[in-house]
Write a structure and sequence with these properties.
Belongs to the band 7/mec-2 family. The protein has helices at residues 24-44, 50-53, 129-134, 139-155, 160-165, 167-182, 201-243, 245-260, 273-276, and strands at residues 2-7, 13-18, 54-57, 61-67, 70-71, 80-83, 89-95, 99-109, 115-126, 187-198. It is an alpha+beta fold and 283 residues long. It has three domains: 2-95, no CATH class; 100-125 and 136-199, 2-Layer Sandwich (Tetrahydropterin Synthase, Chain A); 205-276, no CATH class. The strands form four sheets. A three-stranded antiparallel β-sheet has the order 5-4-7. It has a three-stranded antiparallel β-sheet with strand order 8-9-10. Strand 8 (99-109) and strand 9 form a beta hairpin.
């Protein structure tokens, strides 16, 4: 503590007190004393203290150790056994496996002023355990909230047709945005998939009516083209038959053969006039 005097604007003298922050030497002494006391306690309670000093992390886990609130040097520990001092060390486990979560359905207004509801699924993993523990309070909850807002922002820049037909581009854009935003937290976004796109019922009925009208129009066009081709083929057939009268007789006999194949009891057919020409008197 320091005592000082300073002159005020009115000409008087003011007394003030200042407090100095603990120096690095003082903090080092306190840390050394606490560490030594912890080691002494470890020795006095040996071998029972080993149950609290030795910890194990799995292959897919890492341990971030703090000593008196400071991050220990050497990075995250694991996998395997690591040692901590009682009373002065605490640690936090971080799972490195890929985690997936569902993004709740988000209602957003598209670029062409259509309200849609879209949900997705996000896959991520911890790439840097130290940043995941030190730089963010809850990396899982933060990533979920960020995914929700990112999905709504991306939907606002796309038309309805793009959302319905190009989901892969939306997923890729969302993954890139999330990966850039979560990189300072030590989180790596591996994959984003759009699950479902829901439209209002009125818009669904309108789109169904539009699709039905489009199908009817295509059916009429196809039927008209078929009629045109059939007419051309019939005209060509009539021209061929007109060139050869015998072809007409063969077609007539083929028709009689087709009729005789039917299971009818009585068949009445006209007699072709060309057969009677042989019995008619010649001029």
């Amino acid at each position: 503590m320091n005592i000082g005097l300073k002159k005020t604007e009115s000409g008087g003298i003011e007394c003030f007190l200042t407090y100095d922050k603990p120096s690095n030497i003082t903090m080092g002494c306190i840390e050394f004393t606490a560490t030594a006391s912890s080691i002494l306690l470890l020795i006095l309670t040996f071998p029972f203290s080993l149950f609290w000093c030795f910890k194990v992390v799995q292959e897919y886990e890492r341990a971030v150790i703090f000593r008196l609130g400071r991050l220990r040097q050497g990075g995250a520990r694991g996998p395997g056994i690591f040692f901590i001092l009682p009373c002065v060390d605490n640690y936090c486990k971080v799972d490195l496996r890929t985690v997936s979560f569902d993004v709740p359905p988000q209602e957003a207004l598209t670029k062409d002023s259509v309200t849609v509801t879209v949900d997705a699924v996000v896959y991520y993993r911890i790439e840097d355990p130290l940043n995941a523990v030190v730089k963010v309070t809850n990396y899982s909850n933060s990533t979920r909230l960020l995914a929700m807002t990112t999905l709504r922002n991306i939907l606002g820049t796309r038309n309805l047709a793009e959302i319905l037909s190009d989901r892969e581009a939306i997923s890729s854009t969302m993954q890139t945005s999330l990966d850039i935003a979560t990189d300072p937290w030590g989180v790596k976004v591996e994959r984003v998939e759009i699950k479902d796109v829901s439209l209002p019922h009125q818009l669904q009925r309108a789109m169904a009516a539009e699709a039905e009208a489009s199908r009817d129009a295509r059916a009429k066009v196809i039927a008209a083209e078929g009629e045109m081709k059939a007419s051309r083929a019939l005209k060509e057939a009539s021209d061929v038959i007109n060139e050869s009268p015998a072809a007409l007789q063969l077609r007539y006999l083929q028709t009689l053969s087709a009729i005789s194949a039917e299971k009818n009891s009585t068949i009445v057919f006209p007699l072709p006039i060309d057969i009677l020409t042989a019995f008619m008197p010649k001029k």
